Amino acid sequence: MTRTRHAVALASGGVDSSTAMAIAIKQGFYVHALSFDYGQRHRCELEAAAKVVHSLGIEDHVITPIDLRAFGGSALTDDIDVPKNRDIARISAGIPVTYVPARNTIFLSFALGWCEILRAQDIFIGVNAVDYSGYPDCRPEFIQAYEHLANLATKAGVEGSARYTIHAPLLHMSKADIIRAGNEAGVDFAVTHSCYDPSPEGLACGACDSCILRRKGFEEAGIPDPARYGS
Predict the structure, then answer these.
(1) pLDDT digit string (tens) for 163-193?
(2) How many CB atoms lie within 10 A of CB 72?
(3) The pTM of the whole model exceeds 0.85
(4) Which is nearest to 121 in space by CA: 28, 1, 2, 8?
(5) What architecture does CATH give domain 5-221?
């Protein structure tokens, strides 16, 4: 297949972003993958992102450093304990301390800048408004507002030479549906990483919100979870 449409896809190494990238490829886009070394405590996700990108046959992968630890304010970028062993009702109630302030706004801004350079008009992001752990920047209202912003804040958008689209193909899927879609699109889930608080060896804790949602998703999808858990 000749891929003439280019897209930037955010690649975290997790189930959702990996599935979104695979869907972009399936839709015929030539994908440029973008990851961030932002000071996250689960930095081993970057190794997973590189493995996912390679497994999907993506040739262009940029890992950009941003020091969000300079601000902190999140269990992922500060000395704050990651919540463990919460039930689904508690996970879905309110915004958890694993929320990184303005993270998706920042990430999409970098993706938009790269799109301008590439003369691409499409950005893929694996946000989800169903099993989304309460993050405000994973809601459809956010995606719609950012797409509007993208077309106001860019040279190509103002001049009318581009119409930017933020693709969030997983937005209204359950985690089980995402896993099924990723499996169908060829994602190798064995190289993905979801845990917020992995061991020094990279083993998933099995108890943080992300691990719980991942395990629940694989169980409901009827697909074995290939992640390596420490407990």
Answers:
(1) 999 999 999 999 999 999 999 999 999 999 9
(2) 15
(3) yes
(4) 8
(5) 3-Layer(aba) Sandwich (3.40)
